[in-house]
Specification:
The complex is a heterodimer of chains A (429) and B (174).
Chain A: H1 2-16, H2 21-36, H3 41-56, H4 63-76, H5 79-91, H6 97-110, H7 116-133, H8 138-149, H9 151-154, H10 159-168, H11 172-178, H12 180-200, H13 213-221, H14 224-239, H15 244-261, H16 268-302, H17 304-315, H18 318-334, H19 339-356, H20 361-377, H21 383-391, H22 397-420, H23 423-426
Helix pairs in contact in A: 1-2, 2-3, 2-16, 3-16, 4-15, 4-16, 5-6, 5-13, 6-7, 6-8, 6-12, 7-8, 7-21, 8-12, 8-21, 8-22, 10-19, 10-20, 12-22, 14-15, 16-19, 17-19, 18-19, 18-20, 19-20, 20-22
Chain B: H1 2-37, H2 45-66, H3 77-83, H4 85-117, H5 130-153, H6 162-166
The chains are: A mainly alpha (429), B mainly alpha (174).
Chain lengths: 429, 174
């Protein structure tokens, strides 16, 4: 166990110094593996090659670049503005209506994008000017876009859920289906958070204008591409018509067609930029996956995961106790580490303990995503908060963190509900 | 002169990666449409996609490494850079180059081993060395770009593509 902990300590130390996460993880895993095998570098090299090729040439993992591409194409199709108008037509006239509309628009964007950062950045551009125009307090408006953006990784398709499926060797399709109800629950909780905030302080966000029926229906009808894509992807996976990989290919092609039909992506340069942007993100992600796979081999060889099984059984934590303990570790890690790293580094360590406790790994995956969502909006890292700030540089970081407080509480409530009622995640399976 | 050569190679790698991704998307789409619309899917789609994955990912790693665009945990990075800027920069570059060399070396070893064994892929019966060799060759291009950029900028890789350093990335993975 000591060896694995030393490995983790060295890895964290190097990462904090600004070393690239993927390559550093791979290096520590490689050296650790060689050391565990009595400095057998030949075996360690062979293991590195095997992990890199098995991951890099994996048909199932093509779902990652394809879903990232779909999100990038949807972003380029500029549908976010229409989503916001439709959501605003539905709930804009309520107190805090524009903030409610932001939550709904984020949910809509999340249904066709697997990234919370893309959701937060896009919706900040779209929603913030409207809310400022109506005199909304910056804390509420920036908080709601930062928190709404986190829906991007819960509502399927979700890149972190794909990563989790890789680590836990679970079915991507089942994870996507399991995420639907928790995603809707989070939307409801975020809307409740907005409602309670403006009920306490109505001056933070007044009601918007009420639109006539014709205007409302015109707004609703413009978002049909999002509904079609979501239904086709999830419906196709749920009914078994196609695999998640095929769904990703269909979704990306569908998004490209919608973008062209809406007047965007009509030049080779626009398509080229979208593809390169996706390749860049994919490559960054895969270096981290390569590293984590190598590191996981070292950790497994060190015996840490199996020693943890004995420890957990000895402590008599029970299944829920173990999950709560892992959540606590992940929340702490989430304050300093980015989410993909947490999924790739922490889950393999606890995997044997979770399996020994007979914990449903689909449910656990959904729990992990909620925990990661909290990490995205809590200090000091709070990636979504910094994303909102990067789009609106005149916002104060402190104001955004203050604004997300109600939504962090909503996330904590969602986590508690999921722990108490696992059926929220498992009912549709 | 060097900057022009650098950007030309980078552009080729970008085009390779982007084309691989685009074909992957179309292939998956046409395969499903063919299967349900015309009762005729594309033979060996999964193996084609595996090759395209290698092209997309290893071309991508080549240009993100040369541009120093790896994911980092930057909570203390700025603090460290203020105190030991040169040591931090060169240590990071040493790890990046070292690990990249390690991967490239082992990919070549694997490719030559597969070449000698004469193994074929199960569906398309293509030589199995194609995958590791493609990855290895693309990694060599990445290494050459990376080393060239390090020497040219004296370790300040961001100077090779200043526009990109300032650009935002909309397709984050989180």
């Amino acid at each position: 166990m000591e060896l694995a902990l030393i490995g983790f300590a060295i890895l964290l130390f190097l990462c904090f110094l600004g070393f690239p996460l993927g390559f550093t993880t791979l290096l520590v895993g490689f050296v650790g593996f060689a050391y565990t095998r009595d400095w057998n570098f030949h075996a360690a090299l062979a293991m590195v090659e095997q992990q890199v090729m098995e991951t890099g040439a994996n048909y199932g993992l093509s779902v990652i670049p394809l879903f990232i591409l779909m999100g990038a194409l949807i972003h380029r199709s500029n549908i976010s503005e229409d989503l916001y108008k439709a959501a605003n037509a539905l709930v804009g006239a309520l107190p805090g209506g524009l903030a409610h509309a932001t939550v709904l628009a984020c949910a809509g964007f999340s249904a066709v994008s697997g990234s919370s950062l893309a959701t937060a950045a896009t919706m900040t551009r779209v929603a913030m000017p409207h809310m400022r125009g109506y005199g909304y307090d910056d804390r509420l408006s920036s908080g709601v876009v930062a928190a709404g953006g986190t829906l991007g990784i819960m509502i399927p398709p979700s890149v972190p859920l794909v990563i989790y499926a890789l680590v836990a060797e679970e079915d991507i399709g089942k994870l996507f289906i399991a995420a639907i109800l928790p995603g809707l629950m989070l939307v409801a909780l975020f809307i409740a958070a907005v409602a309670l905030t403006v009920a306490r302080k109505p001056e933070l966000g007044r009601a918007g204008d009420r639109l006539g029926p014709a205007e409302r229906w015109a707004a609703y009808l413009k978002v049909w591409p999002v509904i079609v894509l979501f239904v086709v992807i999830l419906g196709g996976i749920y009914s078994g018509v196609f695999s998640p990989t095929e769904a990703a290919g269909i979704g990306a092609t569908g998004a490209a067609i919608f973008a062209v039909a809406r007047g965007y992506l009509r030049s080779a340069k626009a398509l080229y930029l979208t593809l390169i942007e996706t390749c860049r993100t994919t490559a960054m992600l895969f270096t981290v996956i390569f590293g984590a796979q190598v590191f996981a081999n070292f950790i497994n060889l060190s015996g840490l995961p199996y020693q943890l099984v004995s420890l957990v059984e000895g402590w008599e934590l029970g299944a829920v106790g173990l999950v709560i303990a892992i959540c606590a570790v992940c929340i702490l890690m989430g304050m300093i580490f980015e989410s993909i790293g947490i999924l790739l580094l922490i889950i393999p360590v606890f995997l044997p303990s979770l399996i020994a406790m007979d914990i449903d790994m689909i449910w656990f995956g959904i729990v992990m995503v909620v925990v990661i969502e909290m990490g995205l909006i809590t200090p000091p890292i709070g990636m979504n908060v910094f994303t909102v700030r990067s789009v609106m540089p005149d916002l104060r970081i402190g104001a955004i963190f203050s604004g997300v407080t109600a939504f962090v509480i909503a996330d904590a409530l969602a986590l508690a509900l999921l722990l108490v009622f696992p059926a929220i995640a498992l009912a549709l399976l | 002169m060097f900057a022009r050569a650098f950007h030309a190679v980078e552009k080729v790698l970008e085009i390779l990666a982007g084309t691989g991704l685009f074909i992957m998307m179309m292939l998956t789409f046409i395969d499903v449409v063919g299967r349900y619309g015309f009762h005729h899917s594309i033979f060996g789609t999964a193996e084609y996609v595996e090759i395209l994955m290698v092209v997309t990912i290893f071309s991508g790693i080549a240009f993100i490494s040369a541009g120093n665009e790896h994911i980092t945990v930057n909570i203390f990075e700025a603090w460290v850079q203020r105190r030991i800027p040169n040591l931090q920069r060169w240590a990071v570059l040493a790890v990046t180059v070292g690990v990249y060399v390690l991967i490239t070396y082992e990919l070549f070893a694997s490719a030559f081993s597969a070449m000698q064994s004469g193994r074929l892929t199960p569906v398309l019966a293509l030589p199995q060395w194609i995958l590791p060799m493609t990855a290895a060759v693309l990694s060599v291009f990445g290494l050459v770009l990376l080393l060239g950029a390090i020497l040219h900028t004296r370790g300040h890789l961001g100077r090779m593509s200043p526009d990109r350093a300032a650009a935002e990335t909309m397709t984050g993975v989180e």
